[in-house]
Structures
1.
Amino acid sequence: MNSIDQLISDWQKTSISSNLVFTHKIPSVKAKWVDFPNDIHPWLQSSLQSIGISSFYLHQKIAWNKINAGSNIVIATGTASGKTLCYSLPILNDLLLNKDITALLLFPTKALTEDQKSKINQINSKILTLSNNSTPYIRPAIYDGDTPQHDRLSIRNKANLILTNPDMLHVGILPHHTLWERILSHLKYIVIDEIHIYRGVFGSHLANVIRRLKRLTNFYGSKPQYIMTSATIANPVELAEKLVEEKVELIDQDGSPYGERRFIFYNPPLINQELGLRNGIVNEGVKLAGDLLSHQVQSIFFARSRKTVEITIKYLQNVYQNDTELMKGYRSGYLPTERRTIENGLRNGILRTVVSTNALELGIDMGSVDAVVLMGYPGSVSAFRQQSGRAGRKQEASLSLLLASSAPLDQFIINHPDFILGANPENALINPDNPLILLAHFKCAAFELPFSKGDSFGSLNWEQIKSYLEFLIISREVVNQNERFLWMADAYPANQISLRSASPTPILLQCEENNQKRTIGEVDFESSIWMAHPGAIYLHQGETYLVHQLDLQNHFAKLSLINSDYYTEPKKNIEIQKINEIQNEEFSNYQKSLGEILVSTTVIGFQKLRWFTQEVLGVEPLNLPPTELRTVAYWLVLSPKVVNTLRSENLWKSDPINYASEWRDIRRIVRERDHFTCQLCGSRERETEFHVHHKTPFRKYLDHKEANQLDNLITLCPICHQRVETNVRMRSGLSGLCYLIAHLAPLILMCDSQDLGAYSDPQAKMTGMQPTVVIFDQFPGGIGLSESLYRQEKVLLQNSLDHVSHCNCLDGCPSCVGPAGENGIGGKKETQAILNKLLECNK
Amino acid sequence: MESLFDKLKSLGVKVGSEFQPIGPRKKYPIDTVMGGEWINNLQGQFYLVNENYPFGYQHGSLSIEEEILFKTLLNLTSINERNINLNQILFIDTETTSLSSGAGTIIFLIGLGFFTETGFRINQYFLENPFDELALLTHINNEIAKYALVISYNGSSFDLPILKSRFALHKLKSPFTNIDHLDLLHLSRRVWKARISNCRLKDIENSILNFYRREEEVPGYLVPQIYFDFLHTNDARPLNGVFYHNQMDVLSLALIFSLLSKLVTIPYGTGDNGSQDLLSIARLFERNRLWQESAQLYRLSMEYGLPENVKADIMFRYGNICKRLKNYEEAVEFWSASFQCGSYDAGIEIAKYLEHQKRDFTNALDWVNRIFIKLDEELNVITYNNNKPRDDLIKRKIRLENKIKNIYIAKNE
C-alpha cells in the first residue's frame, strides 16, 4: 500500500474520519504516444533522443502539425502535460531550416523565463555538437530588466529566439523598436505562455501591448503566428482570440499520463454549532501537516494570503520543533535565490512541507509532490485545478485535499463537491477596450509610430481611434495635421504605465535604516490606502513594518522595521452613487438593474489584532481621502409591497429610525457630558464629530422619549459605533442576503472572489432610499461580470436559498448569512424570506 | 450620450487646459525671427539658417585655424579611414523633443558644421512643421553622405542613435553605414578628467576654451518645451536661444577637435604644460600602445615636475614602457625610484626582471626582502593592481630560495 493510501486508511480509523466529508478517486490515465513526425529535422530528433524523449504525446503531434500549417493555436491540456514542447519543438525545427526567421516568447514571470531557457539550452546543446557550425542555428536569449546593458546590443543583433515578459516588451522593446528592426521584420512566431494569467486588468493591458506589437510587425512587413498555452479555463479560445485578435484553434486532447488521483474535501469540526463557528484552517492545517510528515508524504500547503503563509509557518515551527528544517514558506516576496533553494529542496526531497501562496501555481518544474492541501477554497475552479495539479506529476498516486474555511463559498462547496470536481472552470474575462487602459496604450502607440487616417488598432475603427487621439491633443501630448497624428511631448509614456493596474502611479514603500532610505517595494495607489495607511502593520518578505506616514501627493510611504505582537485590519466605509442605468426589469416583488456606478471607499480606521489569537488590542480612527471606482454593477431593489409583507410577518427590521427633532441638541449634550471621548475605545474627537448611540436599540422602545433618556445614550467614535451597530442593530435580512449572494456569486459567475464587490443598504441613496443590494465589478469600467450576473440571477438566488436553508446554524452564521452579533435577531429567517419572495417572481 | 472626454474625466484622468490646435495664427513666424531661407523639396519644406566663421575668428581663447593636423589624433581612436582631408569632416549636434531616446523622440533642429576654403560654416536645419520631417531627413541624408567622418559630443549614446532611428522610421537608408564616427566626449574625458570632474561640453568650453556663452543661451533641459510652445503659439522668438545653443555646441565641438589635435601632435601643442594634461595625453598614447610617443611625453612631464600623488604611479608606468622598448637599465632605474615613492608593484617588477631576465637570484631575493619590509611598514603603499596578495610574495621568496639552494648544491657536487 502506498503512503497515501496508508494515510487515508489511518485517518479513517480516527476521529478525523468525520471531517472527511467527501472522497473521490480518479483512476490513472495512460499516455497516448505517437511517433515522431516525418518532417522533424534529424538533429532535433537526435537531440530529443539523447535526453530520453523517443516519441511525442498525441497533443504534441497535433500542435506540431497545426503550427506547421500556419494556424494560430492555444494548447489547453492539463498541468505538466508537456505543453512547452508543443511550441518549442516546431519553432526549433523551423530555426534549423530557415536561417533568418525569429521568434518572440512571452512569459509572465522571471522564474518561468529562466526555466524555459534552460530547457531550450538542453535541447540545443546536442544540436550544437551535431551541427559543428561557427554560428549556431538556434540562438536563444533572455531579454528583460536584468539583462546587462553590454549584452543587449549583441542580443538585438544576433539572437533569433527572444525570451521576455510583457512588462519588458511594453517598456523596453516596443518604444525602441527601431533597434529591433531585424527581429521584428523577420518575426515568424509569437508565443504567449500561460494565458490564463492574463485576465482582468493584466490581460486587458496585454491585449493592447499585442495591438501595439501588431502595428509594428505590420510596419516592418512581417505577419507572425500566435501560439499560446493555457491552464484549464472555460474559455481558452475566447480568451486567446481576445488577446491577439486573430482566429485561434484549440488543442485540448491531453495525451499525457496521470497517476491515480485522490480528492478529499475536509470540513473542520464545529466548535459552536449555534454560532456556526468551526475550527480555523490554520489550526487544522497544522494538525494535518503532522500526519503527512509522519507518513513520509511530501506536501505543499496552499494558503490564500501571504499573511496566512507566514502565520502557518510560524505555527508549524512552534509545534514541530524537531522538524523545522523540513518545512519552509514560499511566496513571491522572497528573493529569487531563496525561491530557487526551496524549489530545489522540493525536487530533491529534502523539504517535506512547503507552505505557499499561489506563486507555485505557475508551471515551474519541481518534480512530484505527493500531496497538496488547499487551505480554503482558492477562489476559482481554475486555481483549484492548478493547485491540485501539483500533486503527482509522475505516475504515482497523489492526494489533493481541500480544507474548507467557514466562508459561505467553502461551506457551499463542501456540500456540493460536484460544483468543483465536475465543473467547468472559470471564464477568464478581459476588457481590452476599457477606456482607461486604451488611453494609456494610445499614448504608447503614438509614441512608437504616428497615426494616419484609416489606421487600425486591433479591432477598433478609425472613428474610435480618432476620439482617443483627440483627447491626447487636448492633453498636449499629440499634435495633428490633415488627419496625421504625431507624439509631441517630453515624456516616455510606457514608463508611467503599469500593466497590472488600471491606474498609474504606485506608492513607493520606503524604509529608513541607519540614515539610509531604502525602497522595499511598491503598492498601487488604491491599495495603498488600506494596505499602507498610517499605523498599518505591513508584511514584506517575512518582516513586519510599521507605516509611519502615507504621502499620497508625493507617492511614497515611510515605514520602519518593527517587532510587533499584533497585525492590523482596516475598516472600510463604502458609498455608492448611481451614474446611469443601462438595463432594468421590474417584477412585482422587486426590480433588477444593470448600470454604471461610482464607488467611494473610505478607510475610516483600523483594528489591531494579536497574532494567532485574533484578540482585538485596539481600534484607531483614520482620516484618509476616499478612493473612487467607476464601474458596472448589478443591483436589486425590493418593492414596497415586499417590504410591507415582510414587516407584517414581523420579519422586516430595516425600517429607518424616526429620531425626534430634538435629536441634534440631545447629541450635543451627550457628547459634552462624555467629554467628547469615545466611551468604548477612549479616543478623543478631532475633526469629525463623534456619534451618539442608543444602548438599547431605538426600535425596541415604543416611546422615543424613553429611548432618548440620557442614560441610554453614549458617545462613540465612528468605528466603535459601526461595530456596535452591526452587533446590536436588528439583523436585517438585506445584509444577510447581500453577504450570501456576494460570497456565492463568484462560483456562479465563474470568476475569482476578489473580482466582485458588494454593498447593501435598507435606505440606499442611489435608488431613492429603497432597500437595495449591489454587486459590482472590482475593475474600473467593468469587465462583464455584473452583466453576466444580471442574466444569471435566478441561478444565484436559487443556490443561495438552497444553501441557507440547509445550513445547520440556528440563526445565521459566517457560513451562510454572516456572523450573528450579540443581539442579532432573525438574520437567517429574514434572508430566506426575502429570497423566497424574489424567487416567486422568477418562476 | 457621454463623450469620451467626459467619461475619461470621470474615470479619474487628469485633463489639462484648453484645446489649441496648430493654427494659422502666425504671430512671429520663424522667418521673421531668424535670418535664413526656406528649403523646399518633393517631401515638404524646412528652414535653413547658416553662419560663416572666417579663419582667425576668436572663440574664447582659441581661434579657427586653417590647418589642423589631426592625423595623430585619429591614430589614437578606432577610426578606420584616417587618410582624409579637413573638409571631409562633418561636425554634428542635434536638438530633440526629449532627453530620453525612443521612437517618439524627434530631432527638430540639427546643426551641421564643416570647413570651407574661407573658414568654418554651420548649417542649421529647423523642422518648422514636424509633419515635414521626411523632407528634412531626405535632405540631411544627402548632406551627410558627402562626408567621410562625422564628429559629435556624446553622439554615440545620444544624437546618432536618435538620428538613425528617425531614418529607420521613414524607411530611409542610414547614411552612417559607410561613415566613421568620432565621439569627442570619450577623448576629452581621457585628456581632461584629471582636472575637470564632469567633462560636459559646457565644462570644457568654460575651463579649456575659456568661452562663456551669451545671455540668449538656453539650457538643454528647457529646449523641448520651447519647441512645443512654438508649435502651439507660432511665436518663434524664444527659438533664438535654441539656435544659439545649438550653434555654440557645433562651434565649440570644432574647436575642441582642433585643440585636441594640437595637444597630441609634436611638438605637443600649447597645452597647459606642467599640469596633468601632459600626463593624460601620455596615458592616451600608452593605451594605444604607442610606446615611443608615450615615453617622450612622460619624460617631458617629469621635467616639468610630477605632482606628489602620482609620482610613484607615473614612474612605474614609465618603467614598464622602458621594458617594452627593451631599455632595461632605464626601466630598473625608474622602477626603483617608483618603489622608493611607495609602489609595491614596481618592486615586484624589479624582482621579476632580476629573476627571469638577468637570472640574478640573489639580488632578486634581496629585493623581495626589501618589499617585505615595505609591506610590514605599510607606509604609503601605492599599488597599481590592488589585489597583489602577500602570499604571492611568499611564493616568490620560496621559489628564489630554492633556486639559490639548487645552484649552490649544483656547484658543490
2.
Amino acid sequence: MGIRAPLVRYMAALAVRNRLTGLLFLFAVVLSGTALILTWLTPGTERRTFYDLAYLGLEFLAVATPILASTAIHVLEFDQRTVWLVLVRPVTRPGYTWGRFWGVTGAAWVNLSLASLLVGALALLLRALPEPWFVGVVVAAFLESLVIGALSCLVAFVTTSFVTALVVNGGIVLLGYLTPTLHAAVARSGNAALRLAGDTVYWVLPHLADFSVREFTRPAEGWYLTLLAIYALAWTGAALAAATAVFLKREV
Amino acid sequence: MKYSYPAAAAVFFAAAGAAGWGLDGRAAALLGDAPGNPENMAQWGARGLSLRKAAADMKWMEIIQHCGESLYHRDHGKVLAKLADEAVGFDPRFTYVHKFTGAMLMWPCRNPRAAVSLLEKGIRDNPSETGLKLYLAAFTYSRLENLRGEVGMLERLAVAPDAPPVVQKILANVYEKQGRPDKAAAMWRYLAKYSADGDISNWAKGKLERHGMTVPQ
C-alpha cells in the first residue's frame, strides 16, 4: 500500500500550519480559561463547572480539528490542483489516502494532546484532581478524532468543493450525534416510514454521542472504552477503505 | 497483492454496526436517564448533541444570578422554581440544584410546596441520594402546617431498606407534633429496637420512657 512517512509529515505540516487549526486550538484555550473563570460564578459546583466546559472543549477539538484541517487541505489540493504535484511522484493513491488521513489525524492529536495537558494543568491550579472521568474523556476524544479524520477524508474525495465538503462534514457530525436520540424517538412513533428512515440513519451513520463519555453519570469502564476503540477502528477502516475506492476512480 | 477496497469497506462497516449496537445499550445505561426524560425540545436537543451537563450548568448560573437580585423572592420563587425545573430537566443528577434551590424556595421565598415538589422530583430521579431525603425531612418538619400532605413521601422514605435514621427520627417527631401518639410510639419502638445508630436508639428509648411506654429490649 505504501504508507509514506514523508507524505504523512507533509500533510500534518499542512494541517498544523493552517490558520484554522491554530484558531481552533486558541478557541480550546479560551474555552478552558473561561471554564476556570466561570467556576468563580458557580460557588459549590466549581469542579463540575470546570470539568463540564473543559471536556466540552476537548470534544469540540476532536470533532472540529480533523474537519477543518481536512477541508483546508481540500482547498489547496483539489481547488488549486496541488494534488498533481504529489501524485506525479511515486505515490500510490491508497498511499496518498493513508498519508492524508494520518496527517490530518496527527494534527488533531497534537491539538488534543496540548489541550488535554492544559486541562490537566488548570485542574491542578483549581486543585480539582483526581477526576475519574478524565482518562475516559481524553481516550474517547482521541478515538473520535480518528473516526472524524477518516470520514472527512472520504467526504473530501466524494465532494467537489471546499464549501460542499464543509457542509457534508457538518451534516454527518450533526446527524451522527443526534442518531441514538433520534432513533429512540422514532421507534416510539407509529409511522412505519418514519421508523424506516430512523433505522436507516441509525445504521448508516456513526453514533458520535457514544464518544461523549463526559455526559455519563458514572465514569466509563475499561471494557466500554475497549468496545469504543473497536467501534472507532471499524468505522475508520470502513471510511478509509471507501475513501480509497472512491479516490482510485476519481479524476483529479 | 490486490486489495478489494469496497469489500474491505463492507466488512469494516458490518463490524462497526455490530460494535455500535452493543455500545449504544451500554451508553444508555451509563447515561442513566431518569424516566420521562427528555420532556421537551430543548432537553431533547441538549441530550442529542451531548450538551446536557453544559446546559444544566448554564441554567445553574442563571439561578445564582437570579438569587443575586435584591427582590428575587418577591414572586414567592416562581421564576426560581422554573429555572430549577429547567436545570434539573437537562441533568436530573445535578442534585446541588435541588438542594440549593429547594432551600431558597423554602426559606427566603416562603414557598414550601415548590421546595418540596422540587426535592421529591430529585429523590425520584436520584433514589440513592441521602442528602435530598434529609432536606425533605427537615422541610416537612419545619413547615408542618403547610405541608400536611407531604408527610406521605416522608413515610415512604422512612420504611425503605436504606432509609437514613435521621429521616425516621424526624418522621417520629412529625407524628408527635401532629398529635398522632400511636404512630409516633410505633416509630420510637422501631428505632429503639432496630436502629443501628446508638444515639437515635437511646433518644427513642428516652421518648418512650418520658411518655410512660414500655421500652423494647
